[in-house]
Amino acid sequence: MNKVFIMCSLIFLSSCLNSEEKVNDLLVGNGTVDVLKNIGDVKKLSIQIDRVIPLETSDSCIIGSISKIDIDHGDFLILDRWKSKSVFWFSGQGEFRNKINTIGKAEGEYLGLEDFLRNSNGKEYLLYDRTLSKLLTYNNKRNFVKEASLNKQICNIVNTTSSDFLIQTTSGEDFLLELWDQNFIKKHEFLHRPEYVKNYFMGAEFTLKKDNTNTISFCPPFSNIIYKWKNEKMAVSYAIKNIDLFPNKAFFDKYKGRHPSLLLEEIKKQKYINFLDFIENSDVLILKYYRGEQKTVTLFNKHSETSVSYKVGNSCIANLIFNSISVTEGGQFISYIFPYQINSLSNNNVLMEHVSVSFSENNNPYIVYLDVAGEE
Questions:
Q1: End-to-end CA distance of the chain
Q2: Name one Pfam family in it (predicted).
Q3: How far apart are CA 3 and CA 248, in angstroms?
Q4: pTM score, whole prediction
Q5: Can you tell me the distance from the alpha carbon of 201 to that of 261, in angstroms, rounded to the nearest whole number?
Q6: I need a labelling partner for 171 at 20 to 30 A (CA). Which of 21, 89, 160, 193 fits?
């Protein structure tokens, strides 16, 4: 009964999406973002909740935060970077299976778990320890196999369809994108950032993604272009047509010498775009970004080449979109929601009363399957 009520509650909250204030200044067409096109005459996109999977809650699998979700042969892989510093495995029905939790400084242990990924062979998992600057390899039984110490910091790492890796690294004051082989030796370096940007934004990272078609996409910080990498070739995937929405050389020259934090404040005041994240499947591209201080989401239908944008408020559905969304092997978007988020985001007293009976802040989150589609 509780599960049925949870589903009904989330479906009810999903109607909040249509009440979000629409934005008229970010539209994608023919691979470019047209900020001048009127949104009123285009095909709308909607997000519906397909199903909700509760994750098992027990002492061995308490999740405090979700930094990343992945799907491995129907299982959920969840990274809790902050509370438990673990990678959890749950079945497709939400049953706890296993976890990696080896905190320490010795071989096979980590201190600052930053990221994980499945190797291209599908039989190994890589965990990146940013604190100790090393990569740890585990087999499909979650047992430690080997580790490799690195001579540089990694911000993002994605495996290609071969045995190579695309990696964003730090080098002095700049962030670089490099291609490494399976022994983590650099093969190629490319995509340097402009000189007028790199000295100011040491902390600005690329957005680096791989979708279910093995296409790797990435966006440099404060760039108007999303690139794609497939079959060892790089090309432009999408671009914002009106580049005046991004800080340029004249902007950086004007504020030269300012502390990066003050520069970021100026960027917000002038309502420049700063991409936070994007994700896509074969049908839809989802862009998540700040326009000034406003969190915004744009949904782009690749077939009709039309889009709709929303200012992100405090509705449940808006946060589902803005969370760390992932894509299943079948191309469906998945997100998550913690029970306490339902309580805090709902203004319906009856709903809050019923939800509080079933949930506490110690309950694990729910995996939410989302259907994103175009409609006339």
A1: 35
A2: DUF5128
A3: 51
A4: 0.76
A5: 9
A6: 160
Three-state secondary structure readout of the chain: CHHHHHHHHHHHHHHHHHHCCEECCCEEECCEEECCCCHHHCCEEEEEEEEEEECCCCCCCCCCCCCEEEEECCEEEEEECCCCCEEEEECCCCCEEEEECCECCCCCCECCEEEEEECCCCCEEEEEECCCCEEEEEECCCCEEEEEECCCCEEEEEECCCCCEEEEEEECCEEEEEEECCCCCEEEEECCCCHHHHCCCCCCCCEEEECCCCCEEEECCCCCEEEEEECCEEEEEEEECCHHHCCCHHHHHHCCCCCHHHHHHHHHHCCCEEEEEEEECCCEEEEEEEECCEEEEEEEECCCCEEEEEECCCCHHHHHHHCCCEECCCCCEEEEECHHHHHHHCCCHHHHHHHHHHCCCCCCCEEEEEEEEEEC
Domain count of the fold of the chain: 1
- At 367, give phi and psi (nearest 5°): -85, 130
pLDDT in tens, 293-303: 888 777 777 77
**What is the C-alpha separation between 127 and 134, in angstroms, rounded?**
8
Kindly report the CA angle at 88 between 86 and 94, in degrees rounded to 5?
150
| Domain boundaries, position 271 | 2-375
Distances from the Cα of 252 to the Cα of 21, 127, 194, 256, 343, angstroms: 32, 37, 11, 6, 43
Compute the half-sphere exposure of residue 275: CA atoms within 13 Å on the CB side of its CA. 24
Phi, psi of 344 (to 5 degrees): -80, -25
pLDDT per position as a tens digit, 279-298 = 888 888 888 888 888 887 77
What CATH number is associated with residue 163? 2.120.10.30
The encoded tokens of residue 361 equal: 């802040």
* 160: nearest Cα among 205, 209, 201: 209
Kindly report, residue by residue over 129-148, the tens digit of the pLDDT: 888 888 888 988 888 998 88
For the record, the structure tokens of 325 come out as 């969304």
